[in-house]
Specification:
The structure holds two protein chains of two kinds.
Chain A: H1 7-28, H2 34-40, H3 46-69, H4 82-98, H5 105-112, H6 116-139
Helix pairs in contact in A: 2-3, 5-6
Chain B: H1 2-19, H2 25-32, H3 41-63, H4 83-99, H5 103-108, H6 115-136
Helix pairs in contact in B: 2-4
The chains are: A mainly alpha, B mainly alpha.
């Protein structure tokens, strides 16, 4: 069922993400919400954003280091055409800004503190993602 | 220390995304394809993350009045479930399905050197900017 990714990898990788979220909150009092961090770069001063820039650089380096150190091939680029890429990006940016969070902020940190808003947000984006994929792939037969 | 912990937690998050193959948009779309050839990976990643985060957050919120290095816990100021939360999350879900990237993996994938990733991230930042602009002018 998992082809190249083992059970240890998905549970262990998930645990690392959960640990990151927990440590950032416990130590710095901050929610590890990636979209919130990225979009704050366009909304508040550089001084307030230093920790966010450091976290995001760490995010990029942490992923790159894993592939390099474990000799794992890089994942593929998305299959999507240019139009879907741009539309998808716009919707992800607009939607997570409007909904104040994404998979990390609502789906992990928000659920971990049992926030009703985050539970509703997570159920909503999961449901709409499953529905949208079904419509585009199985109803329209689009190549995404 | 505040910045050191930001770096370490960023590294951990990135390593976790890579280890669980969540930086792979095809695998994420495989999870969302509930009615096709379903790949449950993402569900196990969420379970692994929440198994650590739920007890951890609950313990910290009960036992500590403030974080170890920061001034206070920065929690979302909004508590009501409103139209923006539901509509925004729905739009996000649709965009997520179309490409297979949510914001974390899209940013983590910037080092791969794929032009598709840059296009997606620029569109994502633009989408957020449009919303920030609208919210400000309300």
């Amino acid at each position: 069922m998992f082809d190249s990714v083992s059970f240890t990898n998905v549970l262990g990788g998930g645990a690392l993400i959960g640990l990151s979220s927990l440590l950032l909150f416990t130590l710095n009092g901050r929610i590890a919400g990636i979209c919130g961090m990225a979009f704050s770069l366009m909304a508040t001063s550089l001084k307030n954003n230093i920790w966010r820039i450091i976290f995001l650089v760490g995010l990029v380096l942490g992923s790159a280091a894993f592939y390099w150190l474990t000799n794992t091939p890089l994942p593929p680029a998305p299959d999507s055409s240019l139009g879907w890429l741009i539309l998808g990006g716009l919707l992800v940016g607009y939607g997570t800004s409007m909904g104040n969070g994404c998979t990390s902020g609502h789906g992990i940190a928000g659920i971990a503190r049992l926030s009703p808003r985050s539970i509703i947000a997570t159920l909503t984006f999961m449901a709409f993602a499953i529905l949208a994929l079904f419509i585009v792939k199985h109803v329209i037969g689009g190549d995404i | 220390m505040y910045y050191v912990t930001a770096l370490i937690t960023g590294l951990l998050f990135g390593a976790g995304l890579a280890a669980s193959d969540m930086n792979n948009p095809v695998r994420v779309q495989g999870f969302l394809d509930l009615f096709g050839d379903w790949d449950p990976s993402l569900m196990f990643v969420m379970m692994g993350a929440l198994a650590v985060a739920i007890p951890g957050f609950q313990w910290v919120l009960r036992k500590r009045a403030k974080p170890v290095f920061g001034k206070r816990f920065y929690l979302a100021s909004k508590t009501v479930i409103d139209r923006d939360l539901v509509l925004g999350s729905a739009l996000f879900g649709i965009g997520w399905a179309l490409v297979g990237y949510c914001p974390g993996p899209a940013i983590a994938a910037l080092s791969f050197g794929y032009s598709d990733v840059f296009i997606f991230v620029i569109a994502m930042m633009l989408g957020a900017k449009i919303h920030q602009f609208q919210a400000k002018s309300k």
